[in-house]
Amino acid sequence: MTTIQAPKEKRTRLKFYEQVNAEGLIGFVREMGSTLIGVPETDKHPKKVVLLSPELNVDIIPNALYDCTVRPMKSGKGYVVVEAELHTFPAVIETIYIPKVEYKITVKFGNKTIIYDIIRGRSIHSGTINGVGAVLAKRYDILDREEVCRQFIVAAKTLRQHFDADKMIQSINGKLITENITY
Asked: To 5 degrees, how large is the angle CA 112–CA 67–CA 42?
């Protein structure tokens, strides 16, 4: 009796991109021994295409990182994603307070850093609590996003109290800023 072995599933991290001339999303992997590594289409090394299985019931966000289970295509020219879960990164919040010199909070996750800088923030999205809070709330790649937002707001309010107590004045692009925190 002969047994037919099912294609071996593999795990990898992938980003999916919109195809220019067709519907759907596509990803690419490079094979390194028995390991698959997600790569961009522009990668100079030999790569294989990765398509989403029609049975996959996940809304994929283009350019977001996913933890995927893939199976080889029958043709051997690529892989099919059978499971995909959005990859999220733990965040680290760091407050830097040097009276009358530095008033800054950094939120780091993955290879991203979002900065709240009361003195050097040049836009609403980097110089105000509401702006940075809104940026964090929209991020889909932060592990426990609601808690990170809550911790940021607490830290930012405390930092803003120090800023005000130190009798500092905030301006963004020459405009005086007073915070009315609505977040």
From this structure: 70
